[in-house]
C-alpha cells in the first residue's frame, strides 16, 4: 500500500461547513507528529519533503492549539466555522489565529505540491516551492521579523528533495521504512519513470480538497473580520 494511502485526506467543504476532527486528522497526517506518552508517531508528507523543520514545528503547534480548543468545546466546535465563531477571539495564541496561520501554511505547501504536478520539467522541488512561497506565505512575512523568516525559508527551499526521491518515498509500501535517497542521475531518471505514473494521480486526488478549504475559509475569515488567509 503506497505511502499516500496511509495519509488521511482532507474533508470536503459541505453546506454545514468543514468537519473539525477530520480536518485536524488530515492536517496531522500532512505535517506529521512525533511520538508522545499518549499518542504514536505519525509520519507525514513533511517528513518525506524534509528541509522544512521550522514550518513543520510551527504548523504542529497551530494544529495543537486548534485541537485543544476542539477537545474543550466539542459541542460548539463540530465545524471549523463553529469553532471560530464560538471562540470569539482573534488574539495571538487563540485557536482562531492558530487556524489562520495553519491554513496559510497549508496554502503554501499545497500550492508547492500542485506546481510540482503541473510542471514536470523541474527535477528539483526547490523551484515550485519557491514560487509557491512567493505567492502565499511570503506576503505575510513583512517587516524586520518577516525579512528574517524569509531568509530561513530561502535556506529551507534549497533543502527540497529531487522529484524522483520525493515520489519514490511517496510510493513506499511502509511509511516507517522509507527508501534512501537515490544518488545518481541514472537512478533518479529510471525510478521517476517507474513511480510517477502511480504517485501523481494519488497526489492529485489527495490534494483536490485543500485549495477549496483554503478559499472557503479565507472568505469566511474576511467576512467575519477574523483575518485573512489569502493576500492578493
Automatic annotation (TrEMBL):
Q: Which molecular-function annotations from GO does this UniProt entry contain?
A: ceramide 1-phosphate binding; ceramide 1-phosphate transfer activity
Family annotation (InterPro entries)? GLTP_sf, Glycolipid_transfer_prot_dom
For this protein, the record's Pfam families field holds:
GLTP
Its domain of life? Answer: Eukaryota
Q: Cellular component GO terms, alphabetically?
A: cytosol; membrane
Which residues does the UniProt record annotate as the domain Glycolipid transfer protein?
40-171
Q: Which UniProt keywords apply?
A: Transport
PANTHER family listed in its UniProt record: GLYCOLIPID TRANSFER PROTEIN-RELATED, PLECKSTRIN HOMOLOGY DOMAIN-CONTAINING FAMILY A MEMBER 8
Please give the name of this protein.
Glycolipid transfer protein
Show the taxonomic lineage. Answer: Eukaryota, Fungi, Dikarya, Basidiomycota, Agaricomycotina
Amino acid at each position: 500500500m503506497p505511502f499516500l494511502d496511509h495519509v488521511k485526506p482532507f474533508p470536503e467543504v459541505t453546506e454545514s461547513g468543514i468537519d473539525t476532527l477530520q480536518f485536524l486528522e488530515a492536517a496531522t497526517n500532512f505535517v506529521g507528529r512525533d511520538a508522545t506518552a499518549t499518542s504514536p508517531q505519525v509520519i507525514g508528507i513533511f517528513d518525506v519533503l524534509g528541509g522544512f523543520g521550522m514550518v513543520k514545528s510551527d504548523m504542529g503547534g497551530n494544529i495543537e492549539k486548534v485541537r485543544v480548543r476542539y477537545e474543550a468545546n466539542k459541542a460548539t466546535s463540530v465545524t471549523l466555522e463553529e469553532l471560530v465563531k464560538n471562540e470569539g477571539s482573534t488574539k495571538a495564541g487563540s485557536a482562531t489565529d492558530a487556524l489562520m496561520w495553519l491554513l496559510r501554511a497549508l496554502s503554501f505547501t499545497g500550492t508547492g505540491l500542485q506546481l510540482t504536478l503541473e510542471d514536470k520539467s523541474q527535477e528539483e522541488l526547490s523551484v515550485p516551492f519557491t514560487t509557491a512561497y512567493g505567492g502565499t506565505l511570503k506576503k505575510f512575512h513583512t517587516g524586520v521579523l518577516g525579512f528574517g523568516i524569509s531568509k530561513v525559508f530561502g535556506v529551507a527551499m534549497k533543502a527540497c528533495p529531487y522529484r524522483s526521491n520525493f515520489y519514490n518515498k511517496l510510493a513506499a509500501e511502509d511509511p516507517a521504512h522509507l527508501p534512501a535517497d537515490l544518488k545518481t542521475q541514472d537512478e533518479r531518471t529510471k525510478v521517476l519513470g517507474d513511480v510517477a505514473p502511480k504517485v501523481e494521480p494519488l497526489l492529485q486526488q489527495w490534494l483536490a480538497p485543500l485549495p477549496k478549504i483554503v478559499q472557503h475559509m479565507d472568505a469566511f475569515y474576511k467576512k467575519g473580520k477574523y483575518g485573512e488567509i489569502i493576500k492578493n
